Amino acid sequence: MTFIDIVLRRPSYGWQDSTGQLVKPSAGQIFSEFFSRLNVFKDRKNWLPFMSWLKVLCMVPFLLLFIFKFFSFWMLGAAFLYSMIIMGTHGTIWHHRYCTHGAYKFRNAFWRFFTQNLTISMIPEEIYVISHHVHHAKSDQPGDPYNAQAGFLYCFLADVNHQPIATNLTEPEYNRVKLLMRHTGVAGNTYRQYLKWGSYLNPGNAIFSWVMNWSFWYLIFYLVGGHALACTLFGAAGFWAVGVRTFNYEGHGKGEAVQRDGIDYNKKDGSVNQLWPGIVAGEWHNNHHLFPKSARSGFKPHQIDLAWYYIKFMSIIGVVTSYRDSKKQFYEQYHLPYEAAKAMQSKPVLAEIN
């Protein structure tokens, strides 16, 4: 078996059956796995997914304060802007295009740290990065940690059930995990520490970073708009953290064949370009699956890509030293040939009319 086959912690119901077909667990099986994997008293190696969902739970009081104490249409607008656009775009900039795909490079560690902490921290890099490499290698196949064909819950709870790294990797295998994470600047466990905690990330470092990030942003928001703005935006961050867990189910057509000619050019999997995620977060998902290492995925004129605009701006001012841009390649290999083929198909029809 390859590294990609074994790097993630296998769920109790497995990835595939004896015939190689995708296992589609019942809701009961998924919830059982979910709560078992969150049980830190049963196994301390469950600490990372537990912390990830604890962050979400910590946001509930902020969201309730926004709704019942600080609500106004101005605050609603701020919550919408922060959750849908700022948090979403930052997730694309940091977790997706940099941490996972290395689509661009920073001049130094300061600007990497700056970009990492542009927003309230909600998702551990480790859970996102390693599993996303597997997603691209096995997209819509058994072993894809958020395979939309297995249903909504399979994707929504994947960060606990399918995305954590395996806890029994050999030292050479764990070193490969370290290589995938090294450029992110996130400090990792030694192999001995990994055997104890079952993760790349160290609990002490994770908790320290969490406390510092949240303290900084609450202070900034409080200085700008008091507790009202701080509670509103923290609640919005929690709302985003729940909503983003639905993306891959939607971004792969809910497991159905819904790709459209002239819009979705990658036919190797079920990824689709969607207008809303594209506009608010630069997630033109089918384009991204065509060119995963590109710092831009909004290739067509109408495909707004806020994440790309940030990367390009940082390049202009010298903070980003290099990046990949696959727009030209997209037009040459996919869009222009498609338009040419479509024009050729229409010629016989025009000839008959004439």
From TrEMBL:
<feature type="transmembrane region" description="Helical">
    <location>
        <begin position="47"/>
        <end position="68"/>
    </location>
</feature>
<keyword id="KW-0472">Membrane</keyword>
<feature type="transmembrane region" description="Helical">
    <location>
        <begin position="306"/>
        <end position="323"/>
    </location>
</feature>
<keyword id="KW-0408">Iron</keyword>
<feature type="domain" description="Fatty acid desaturase">
    <location>
        <begin position="73"/>
        <end position="293"/>
    </location>
</feature>
<keyword id="KW-0275">Fatty acid biosynthesis</keyword>
<keyword id="KW-0444">Lipid biosynthesis</keyword>
<dbReference type="Pfam" id="PF00487">
    <property type="entry name" value="FA_desaturase"/>
</dbReference>
<feature type="transmembrane region" description="Helical">
    <location>
        <begin position="216"/>
        <end position="242"/>
    </location>
</feature>
<keyword id="KW-0276">Fatty acid metabolism</keyword>
<keyword id="KW-0443">Lipid metabolism</keyword>
<protein>
    <submittedName>
        <fullName>Stearoyl-CoA desaturase (Delta-9 desaturase)</fullName>
        <ecNumber>1.14.19.1</ecNumber>
    </submittedName>
</protein>
<keyword id="KW-1133">Transmembrane helix</keyword>
<keyword id="KW-0812">Transmembrane</keyword>
<dbReference type="GO" id="GO:0004768">
    <property type="term" value="F:stearoyl-CoA 9-desaturase activity"/>
</dbReference>
<comment type="similarity">
    <text>Belongs to the fatty acid desaturase type 2 family.</text>
</comment>
<dbReference type="InterPro" id="IPR015876">
    <property type="entry name" value="Acyl-CoA_DS"/>
</dbReference>
<keyword id="KW-0560">Oxidoreductase</keyword>
<feature type="transmembrane region" description="Helical">
    <location>
        <begin position="74"/>
        <end position="94"/>
    </location>
</feature>
<dbReference type="InterPro" id="IPR005804">
    <property type="entry name" value="FA_desaturase_dom"/>
</dbReference>
